[in-house]
Amino acid sequence: QVQLVESGGGLVQAGGSLTLSCAASGSIFSINSWGWYRQAPGKQRELVAALPSGGGTNYADSVKGRFTISRDNAKNTVYLQMNSLKPEDTAVYYCNGRRVLIPTASYWGQGTQVTVSS
Questions:
Q1: What percent of the chain has pLDDT over 70?
Q2: Predicted confidence (pLDDT) per residue in 39-98, tens digit
Q3: How far apart (Å, rounded) are the C-alpha atoms in residues 24 and 11?
Q4: CA 86/CA 33 separation, integer angstroms
Q5: Contact at 8 Å (CB) between 9 and 98?
Q6: For the chain, the helix, strand and coil percentages under 3-state DSSP, each to the nearest 5
Q7: How far is Cα 44 from Cα 86, in angstroms, rounded to an integer?
């Protein structure tokens, strides 16, 4: 099992910055891919940024150039640095860890609220 705990959300003005953290514990050695997702009220959960199993990073077009995903292996923590925040970035942000090898598995944190005021 893998446990994920997000932190760092809050209220920020447009143009501001926040850094989200996702602390992982448990059988994290089995996790091959990490990602940050978000869900705004009335909308589906969407991928924001990812560290895929094959390496590199992936970003949603809406956050490219503004958000950066990274991982500190020593701290078992995944980060999402968010700059130049916009009101449309307001959502609950979720951390995801995924095992892509069989048997596959997907783990989620409880989410952290990010609110960007105009």
A1: 100
A2: 999 999 999 999 998 899 999 999 999 999 999 999 999 999 999 999 999 999 999 999
A3: 24
A4: 27
A5: no
A6: 10, 55, 35
A7: 19
Residue owning tokens 């956050």? 63
- The amino acid sitting at 21 is S
Two tokens, residue 32: 């091959």
Cβ contacts of 7 within 8 Å, gap of 6 or more: 20, 21, 23, 112
Nearest by Cα to 86 from 106, 112, 109, 66: 66
Rounded to whole angstroms, how far apart are CA atoms 3 and 52?
A: 19
CB proximity list for 117: less than 8 A, separation 6 or greater: 11, 12, 13, 14, 87
Radius of gyration of the chain from its Cα atoms, rounded to whole angstroms: 14
Phi first, then psi: what are they for 70, rounded to 5°?
A: -150, 170
